[in-house]
Amino acid sequence: MVSVLADEATAKKLVNLLDDVGALLHGHFLLASGRHSDRYVEKFALLRWPRQVEEVCRELLSRLPWSTIEAVVGPTTGGLLLAFECARQLGVQAAYAERETEGSTRRVIRRGACFRPGMRVLVVDDVLTTGGSVRETLRALAEYPIEICGVAVLVDRSTEPVELGVPLVALLRLEIASWLPSDCPLCKEGVPLVKPGTTVREATQGC
Ligand SMILES: [Zn+2]
After folding, report:
1. Alpha helices of the chain — where are they, by DSSP H?
2. Which of 36, 58, 66, 165 gives the lowest tally of CB atoms within 10 Å of its CB?
3. Where are the domains of the chain?
4. pLDDT at 202 over 70
5. Residues with beta carbon < 5 A to ion ligand 1?
């Protein structure tokens, strides 16, 4: 169950911000799940812009239902950038959950990060789809005697309920329709299909 933090006016402002940097793409997209969609969140169109990242992190942190956060942890790569910025604004330590080996679903906390027993840790990530990367991050943190305040993501675009065993909040919820290829209205119209991460780069603005 995801709680959405932004009120209607803030949500509108955030959607405009994402639109302005070219992070909300409209088209005909092949998702990692194999389904087709008419919208795609190109998170790095936002993560390339430190000022805008600063602003969305401020909006997120100002609405968190948790206090006394003592460290912020995020998964590579987008979550790492957000963990750094959130930790900077809070004046606490950031740590990064990296893949143990390339392609592995096991993550580890490296680079000298250490957690005091009982430390209150916030986990952050960019876009929630199935919750895979935050679940892996929580698993990596499970070996430390810390307290997880909760998980906070910028955008919830999940289509199935996500349960993590800890509180989960999203700054913004985006309802993005997706279809099986056989039911896709865009396929029926003959709109060319784009696999994000390849030709999406050409469709984004803000260079
Ligand atoms: Zn399609």
Report:
1. 8-21, 43-47, 50-63, 78-90, 132-141, 185-189, 200-203
2. 165
3. 3-21+52-177
4. no
5. 36, 184, 186-187
